[in-house]
Amino acid sequence: MKIAVMQPYLFPYIGYWQLINAVDAFVIYDDVNFIKRGYINRNNFLQNQKPQLFTLELFGASQNKKINEIGVGNNSKKLLKTIRQNYSKAPSFQVVFPMLEEILNNEQKELSKFLGSSLVKISKYLNIETKFLYSSDIKNDKTFKAQDRLIEMSKTLNATSYINSIGGIELYDKQVFSQNDINLSFLKSSEIFYKQFNNEFIPNLSIVDVLMFNSKDNIKNMLNQFQLI
Predict the structure, then answer these.
(1) Is the pLDDT of residue 189 over 90?
(2) What is the pLDDT of residues 19-36, one digit of tens each?
(3) Pair 192, 203: CB distance under 8 Å
(4) CB within 10 Å: which end of the chain, N or C, has fewer?
(5) Is 211 helix (H, G, I), strand (E, B) or coil?
(6) Which residues, in sequence order, are CB contacts of 229 under 8 Å at separation 6+?
(7) Are strands 50-55 and 42-47 parallel, antiparallel or unpaired?
(8) Which residue pairs, CB below 8 angstroms and at least 24 apart, start in 98-107?
């Protein structure tokens, strides 16, 4: 079985979805410390032909708290208004916007579950069949840190392959994983382009941008535009 473990992010970029699609089980890493000014509750939309940062309001956000100890605030309506203003003329707006309304109007106020629900809903829309788990629900030794904890979770789930985003290539050691009978590989996304109105293309925006400008079939093709190294 192939697994990946990642912190939950708000509407993450296409590479995150390539990782979800590439594994059998995706573990939402919710019992690690929250990172301020990261992408857990922030991302970028297209606004006036430029990337514009948007932020999901939080309650009790602190780097001394776990992600699953933080609450979701009350600015969902504002975010939906911003999405409507910037994407109402996008080709897939009528299909995608109701799903985004359902995601952002979720009454679940625990941040990790709120974000996890959004990952599940968008995966369902894209016909991704990956199983989702929460690290806090996996019964293993949570005193382990860094790659030792990832190896421990892999063993608990009987995984033989662990795939990480390319950003982990300096952090995790293939030999150490191999000594534990786990094959470690890193997902490197190819350059992805698509039409954004008639403007110069801006890459690496939120999945919202990808959903708004592309059909499901086009996005399914994008999900496979990567290499494992």
Answers:
(1) yes
(2) 999 999 999 999 999 998
(3) yes
(4) C
(5) helix
(6) 166, 169, 185, 186, 188
(7) antiparallel
(8) 99/125, 100/208, 104/76, 104/79, 104/80, 105/76, 105/80
Coil, strand or helix at 3: strand
Compute the distance between CA of residue 47 and CA of residue 210 in angstroms, rounded to an integer: 14
- Residues 126 and 223 sit within 8 Å (Cβ to Cβ): yes
- CA-nearest of 156, 153, 43 to 164 is 153
Is residue 161 within 8 Å of 2, Cβ to Cβ? yes
Asked if residues 66 and 30 have their Cβ atoms less than 8 Å apart, the reply is: yes
Q: Which amino acid is at 38?
A: G
Judged against a pLDDT cut of 80, whether residue 141 lies above it is answered with: no
Alpha helices in the chain (DSSP H): 14-22, 76-87, 93-104, 111-125, 146-156, 174-179, 207-213, 216-222
Q: Is the pLDDT of residue 101 over 90?
A: yes
As a whole number, mean pLDDT of residues 41-65 equals 94
